[in-house]
Input
Amino acid sequence: MPRGKIADAVRAGRVLVSDGAWGTFLHEKGLKPGECPESWCASRFDDVAEVARGYVAAGADMVQSNSFGGSCFKLEHYGLADEAAALNEAAARASRAAAGEAVWVIASIGPTGKMLVTGEVTEEELYGAFKTQAVALEAGGADAVCIETMSDAAEAVQAIRAAKENTGLEVICTFTFERTVRGDFRTMMGLSPADAAKAAVEAGADIIGSNCGNGIVYMVEIVNEMRAVDNDIPILVHANAGLPRVVDGRNVFPDAPEDMARQAPALIAAGANIIGGCCGTTPAHIQAIADAVR
Amino acid sequence: MSVIAEIGEALQKGKKADVEALVRQALDEGGDPQVILEDGLLAGMGRIGEQFKKNEVYVPEVLIAARAMNAGAALLKPYLAEAGVGEKGVVVLGTVKGDLHDIGKNLVKMMMEGKGLRVVDLGVDVPAARFIGAAEENGAQVIACSALLTTTMGEMKNVVEARNASSLAGKVQIMIGGAPVNQSFCDQIGADVYTASAADAADLALELCG
Output
C-alpha cells in the first residue's frame, strides 16, 4: 500500500494531523435531529464524502468516516440493524473517495450504548457487532478503524479484538475522559487514562488516545498519563473545541482554530503523535493545527 | 450490625442476592416494611448517590446498586401496598425527541427511585406531547427531560411550551439535564430546574414533589 502504516510514519518521527467534527456538518447539509446519520452513507453518499473532502483540503493526513453509530445495536433504533454491513462499507467508501491515495481513512467505530455490567449484552454479542463493522469498513477501503468515545475497558477490548482478529486494519482506540471533582480524569465507567491505555495496549491496539472530553488543554494531562504507561505506542488526540456554551439558543464552542493550534506543542511534548478535533472543530481548526505542527 | 444496616451495606456493594436474603430476613423478624425500605434500601442508594456525585464511584457501581435496590423493593412491594404506603411523588421521565441516548436518563431514574419517587419512564425519542400526556395521566408533579446531543437539546423548549399551553401550566415543574445542558440554557428556554448530576436531579425532584 502506498500509504504504509500510520504507526510506522509516527515511529519515523512524523507528527500527523487528523480530522475534526462530522455530525455538525451533516446537520448543516440537512440531517434532521432523530434521523440516522449513518443512513446518509447510502442515501446522501456525495454529501458524506464532502465532509471528508473538507478535511483533506484543510491538510489532514487522515480522515474518519460516517460510521460512529454503525453498530447493529445503534442502527436497530432506526430499524437498520440488517443494513450494518452495507452502511459501514459505504461509509468507508465515501471517505476513501475523498481521501484519494495519499490520505489515510481511519474509520469510526463508536460505543454500542449497551452495558456489559448489567448483563444487557454479552462480550460475544459485542464482539460480533464490532466484527461486522470492522470487516465492512475494510471492504470499503479503510486503512484503520478508529474505535472512539470508549468508556468501558471491556467493551473497548472486544472492539479491538474483533478488528485485529478479523481484518488487516490498523487499530486505533481512544477513550473519553471527564475531569472529576478531584481534578483527575476518569471515563464515565471510572477508568483512568493509565488503566485505559493498559487495557487497549494489552488487547492489541496499534494506536491509543483520547477523544471528545473537556477541551484540548486537559488533553495534555491525559496524554501525559497515557504516555507513562507505554513510551512507544503512537498516541492520537481528537479534542473538542472546548465545552459548548449556549449563545442565543445556539451552541458555540469557545476554542477558535488558533486557540487549539496554540496547544499543539504542549500536546506533542506530552507524547501525542497525531492531533485532530472532535465536537465543535472545523476544517479551519484542522488547518491551524496542521500549520502549527508542520 | 443490624439487619437494616446490613441491607444498606450489601446494596452499596451491589450484592443483589444478599440484599434479597437480608430483606426476607428482616421481614421474617417482623421488621416494618416501611423502615426496611427507607432505612435499608433507600438509605443505601442515597449513599451511592452521594459517592457518585463526589466521583468516588462511577456508573457501574450505580447500576449494580440500583439492580440490588429494585430486587429488594420488589419483595417489599406487596407489604407496602397492603399498608397503603403512598409514593413520595410522581416523575415523568424521558430522553427528548430525536435523541436515543438512555444511559444518563436511566441513572436519573435509578436515583429518583432511590428517593422513593415513582418514575414513569417514557424511554428515548419522546415527543413533547407524550411528556404532557403521561404527566396528565399519572398525576405527575415533575416532567424530567434528558438530552445528550447539542442538536436535540432544543427539543426541551418544545416540552416547556407544550406544558405552558396545557392544563399542567403552573402545576407541573420541568427539570432538564444532560451533557450539553446548563443553567443558562435552562433559563433561556423557561424550564424550571437544571441539575448537573443524576443525584442532584433526584434531590431536587423530591423537593418539587414535597
